[in-house]
Design brief:
alpha+beta, Thrombin, subunit H, Pdz3 Domain, 3 domains, six-stranded antiparallel barrel, six-stranded antiparallel beta barrel
Length: 315
Amino acid sequence: MTTASMVLGRDDQLLDVYSLTVSGAVEAVGPAVALVRGGKGHGSGVVLSPDGLVVTNSHVVAGAKSLRVVLPDGSDLDARVLGTDPDTDLAIIKADGRGLAAATLGDSSTLRRGQIAIAIGNPLGFESTVTAGVISALGRTLRSPTGRPIEVVIQTDAALNPGNSGGPLVSSLGKVIGVNTAMIAGAQGAQGICFAVASNTGLLVLTEILQNGAVRRAYLGLGVDAVNLPRRIADAAGIVSSSAAIIHTVVKGGPAEAADVHEGDVLLSLDGVPVPGPGPLLKMLGKDEIGRRRMMKLLRHGRLLEAGIVASQRT
């Protein structure tokens, strides 16, 4: 055997291993990937339990008066929305079925860049389409339909197209590691930049919706933008930050109004933690903050003030 044929043989073996890995993952998850039809639109979803729990994107089911879930085996099932979380662009729906093929959620905290990533969905109506690539980056932040940043987003170069939304991003082990949600199209010739909401975020949303009917988050009743913070003011406030959050909206009847917060105030810190802008502030407002009293440090017309505020549950 020549050296060239030996090298070709090794390449063929590597190609076969890769092919078998991808096809094995698709065989494990593919039967659980659904076409989700809502009104005139459609997207994808993935069945997570034999009795018909399905995760998809909230924008796929938004405004839909009726839903259908179509599975690869030809099952065409009625479905209803159990709950949506536009802040993460995720929704949980319930298909009227029993004994359905179901996928397993993986642990997205164990992912590494360069791992194989497989997307399964229904782009442009082409059912059960498979694309493969790698995990390009971890820990990205993506703006949700509500404007709230979605944290710990997975970036992949597995090709996504309209209709892939809500479908699974799958690991080489055949576990769902993300829910495909967005792509960058046409921006400066961008190609291969796609995003998925991490599976651990999906598990949190699933648990909250099943237990409470919605995802609970703390709410202060104010809207903010980032603003540069002069060093002398940061020093006077006892914080290390080059920016803060200027308040442009105070919601009537909300916690901020009750705390006598004014539009134009600059929020410097919350319980001593700097608030450099809207993203970090939203990240602070988890469900554990509901009902807790926190001290705000504010700048109003050049004067430093402190005010207590009690976050309510966002509805």
